[in-house]
Amino acid sequence: MAISKKQQLLDAALVLFVEQGISETSTASIAKHAGVATGTLFHHFANKKELVEALYLNLKEALVTDLALSGEIESSEQALVLWRKVITWGLTNPEKMAFFGIYYSSPWVESSFKSSVLNNVFSFLIAFIEKQKAVGAFINLPTDYIAMHIQQSLLNTVNYLIEHNLNANSDLVDLSFSTCLFGLQH
Amino acid sequence: MAISKKQQLLDAALVLFVEQGISETSTASIAKHAGVATGTLFHHFANKKELVEALYLNLKEALVTDLALSGEIESSEQALVLWRKVITWGLTNPEKMAFFGIYYSSPWVESSFKSSVLNNVFSFLIAFIEKQKAVGAFINLPTDYIAMHIQQSLLNTVNYLIEHNLNANSDLVDLSFSTCLFGLQH
Amino acid sequence: MAISKKQQLLDAALVLFVEQGISETSTASIAKHAGVATGTLFHHFANKKELVEALYLNLKEALVTDLALSGEIESSEQALVLWRKVITWGLTNPEKMAFFGIYYSSPWVESSFKSSVLNNVFSFLIAFIEKQKAVGAFINLPTDYIAMHIQQSLLNTVNYLIEHNLNANSDLVDLSFSTCLFGLQH
Amino acid sequence: MAISKKQQLLDAALVLFVEQGISETSTASIAKHAGVATGTLFHHFANKKELVEALYLNLKEALVTDLALSGEIESSEQALVLWRKVITWGLTNPEKMAFFGIYYSSPWVESSFKSSVLNNVFSFLIAFIEKQKAVGAFINLPTDYIAMHIQQSLLNTVNYLIEHNLNANSDLVDLSFSTCLFGLQH
DNA sequence: AATGAATGAGAATTCATTCAT
DNA sequence: CATGAATGAATTCTCATTCAT
Fold first, then answer.
1. What is the fold, at CATH topology level, of the domain defined by D1-45?
2. Which nucleotide is at minimal CA–C1' distance from B42?
């Protein structure tokens, strides 16, 4: 058994959640899709909500690992490199990317926790934003507003590329970066 | 009976959908909240999906009527006026605004229809974008990408203002406009 | 209005009952099919059960009128003539014929009334049977058993002809008569 | 647990279907009668229709097993023995017998499947009929018409016996056999 | 750990019937 | 007579969760 039943469940859940919605996906169908018994799901996760949360943490982990972030972002050039990296990741892992979107706007997250969802995923952004603001490169908008702005731009761009069957070499990748960043600069 | 039962149902649905999510809101609770019998809901709407769609159309209508759009947008100044108008409307009608967001990202909309949802609501944007692109004021991004960008910025801004208890006079209103638009300009 | 709304309702009910079953047919669909308002049905019939009963009486009446029975059946030749007449009527009015079958075996008839349902329709048979028994032409089976036997044979034959797209000239008509009657004779 | 919950459900369904009609019996009442939870019914049967079909197959199986049919029917004497056997079975299992009748004439069976319902139950008849026709003992009626005729005679006879509180020793048993068979002979 | 039968509360929807117009 | 909106109990079916094996 190379892949644990727990991971099989998370994998199945991801596919079904993105396909049908979280509330629209039954725990029974997840188990079936994962090839395990219904009871097994509740052996690994106390309830559906914890499965959803575990999946979120699982994917956040995956994103961070895959991006292999090393050190901070110091310049716009580095930011662009990261922008391309995130978009490439999104195109390689469309379901995972999509899940961040639906999880963020679902009633499965307490609204108090909501704002931190994406920030946690794209936490490396915060430091970059603060730095840019500190050196006066960014206009005077609240950091969390800016973070939201950047994240949505990333999500939008990936969704757009997927919907239009474009790949990471599309002009749109760098153009979207400009659109997002220039608006924030003085 | 000043207000029809059908409208009472739509009103109740709006409140509950935004509060709890669409899938999480039972038709029974909508009827109860509206002060009508459960059967009455299904007398006016064939099923829950049609109620959701009717609500969307209802709110789109309301937005257009309330904004009282007259003529086209010719300049950035007019665009700013409209930007403020939309945000004011969003702050005055937070549930209606929120519904557009959750409807757009819910499994209740066929994905084929999805892209047109927001475009339908903010249809006045398309003409403006095309014109700006025609005169070379906007960079060469697809119109629907730009529309998505602007819409999400509006939604984000309203959400941010609501969450932080800010009103339409906040500096953020005009700043968000700059952030959104400058990024699009050459 | 050549045809009364009451009759339109009975006509619609007949078609739908035979097509879908009595319990499976809603009063709303009957009204719709008849081109009248839902309330109108309950204006003419106290409830669904009374509509069903009225339909039965209506069709029984129609059968008797259409067969134009004059005098009693005195001989096997007359019986054969009548046999052909009933089958022709059944082929001309397949829904009406079918209704007798489904009404007879439906839970809409009190079981106490059940045995008399078909006997009422084919009442002319009873006298014939009694006479044949009196002259010793029929074997010693209870009259109501014989009546049931003959009725089921008629119903079966009509159903068979309809299902196999045969008409009243088929050999089967007279053969079925023989099969039914010879078995009853000494 | 000597008897499985699935069988308990089938048993309860049989009793209630025969008592009240199939459409008139709610799944909830079946579960209650069977002493199981409502959900249990749908754990074993995808929906009500499948329960009905499963019950039919279950009873067909029971009939065949109970009659312990060995070899083919070669003569009228053997046919009479079987006739008595079936009637005895019907009197011993009145609900099972009644179910065949109501199932056959219910909207729960697709009309395409309908003709095969009784033929499946009394399949041993077909071979007998064909043989009798082959040796010229039966008049030239279609086999399926004859099968229908015999089956209905059996059903009618059992129903008559039950309604009149008669047992398998009644003269009617053998008389009904004569009535049914002689009519079919040259 | 894993299974899958069993549970029962609750969901969407249907429907006969009523009644104000 | 006729209408059709309104009712609310009843129905079929779903589903997260439990538990004996």
1. Arc Repressor Mutant, subunit A (1.10.10)
2. E13
What pLDDT is recorded for position B54?
95
Q: What is the CATH number of domain A47-182?
A: 1.10.357.10
Contacts of A102 (CB under 8 A, 6+ apart): A17, A18, A21, A22, B105
Neighbour tally for C39: CB within 10 Å: 8
- Asked whether residue A20, judged by its CB, lies under 7 Å from any atom of the DNA or RNA strand F, the reply is no
Both tokens of B185, joined, read 């300009």
Within residues 31-60 of protein chain D, the ones with CB less than 7 A from nucleic strand F are 38-39, 42-43, 46-49
Q: How far is CA A159 from CA A82, A167, B22, B152, D85, in A?
A: 18, 11, 23, 13, 72
Name residues whose C-beta falls within 8 Å of residue D153's C-beta, 6 or more positions apart in sequence: C149, C152, D176, D179, D180
**For chain A, domain boundaries:** 1-45, 47-182
pLDDT at C25: 98
Between the CA of residue C109 and those of B176, C102, C180, what are the distances in Å? 74, 10, 27
Lowest mean pLDDT among B150-164, C120-134, D138-152: C120-134
pLDDT digits (tens, 9 = 90+) for B76-117: 888 899 999 999 999 999 999 999 989 988 999 887 776 677
Average pLDDT over residues C118-133: 81
**Quick check: D32 and D5 in contact, CB under 8 A?**
no
Contact B27, B41 (CB under 8 A): yes
